[in-house]
Sequence to fold (268 residues):
Amino acid sequence: MVKRVHHVEQHKSNVRGIEVMTLLTNHHFPRHSHDQFAIGVIIFGAQRSWSGIGQVQASTGDVITANPGEIHDGIPLDGAARGWRMIYFDPGLVRREIEEEIVGGVEIAHPVVRDQFLAGTITHLFECLKAPKSDRLATEENLLRCLIYLLRRHGTARPSSRGASPCVVKAIQLLDSAPEMSFSLGELAELTGVSRFQLLRGFAREIGTTPHAYLVQRRVRLARQLLAAGQTPAQAAMQAGFADQSHMTRAFVRQLGITPARYRAAVA
Fold:
C-alpha cells in the first residue's frame, strides 16, 4: 500500500486577484475546474491528467495550465508524490493586464507546455507574489511579462462556443446560477427538455463529468469566494449548499488539497 503524502501551503499573495500555492502530494485530484486561470511548474515527479484534448502527462520542469471553467484532474504516476507551484489569476485581472497588448478574448491552448523560459518566468513571479516585502514595480513587471509571453506564445483566440448541446448548456446555467440549491437529475432533465439519461450522457461526453460532480465543484468555488470574503467555514458551508461543514471540508480538500480553514487564513 502506498503511503499517503500530502503537504499543501496556501501562501499570502501581495497582489489582489492572485492566489499562490505550493503542493507536495500523491493525492489523486478528481475532475474539477477553477474560476481562475491557473499556471504552475512541476518541481519534481510527474502526473497524468485528463483534459479537453485527452490524457496528458507532465513531469519535472513542465508548465501546467488550466483556463477558467476547464475540467481537469491530476493523478500521480505510480502513486509517487509530485511537487508543483501554482498561481491562480482572476480573469478580470488578466483582461486588465493584457488589454493594451492583446485584443479580444484569449485562452491558454495547451494543458502542458515544455518551455524552459516560461517555467523560469513563472517561478520568478511566484517568488515575487509570496514575498512579504516584494518590490511593487518588480512584481508588476514580472506579472505583465509572464502573462504576455504565455498568451502570445501559448494562447489562442477564445472560441465563441465550446460546442456543448443546448440541454447541457442550459443545465450548466441552472447549476451556475444557484449552486446552493438542491436539484434532482429528473428536475434538471425536465427543465432542459431531455431524458435523465440523455442529460447524464451529454454531461459526461461534453463536460467530462456528471451533473452532481459539477454541482459539488461549483459549490466548492462558491465556498472559496465566501471564505475569501471573511465568512467562517460553518457559514460558508451553509450558504454554499453543503449538508454540513464536514461535507464541505471533504469536498474542499478533495478538489483543492487544502482545508477551508487554512484557505481562509491565507486569503481572507
About this structure: The chain has a mean pLDDT of 92. Residues 136-154 form the longest helix (19 residues). Residues 166-267 form a domain with the Arc Repressor Mutant, subunit A fold (CATH 1.10.10.60).
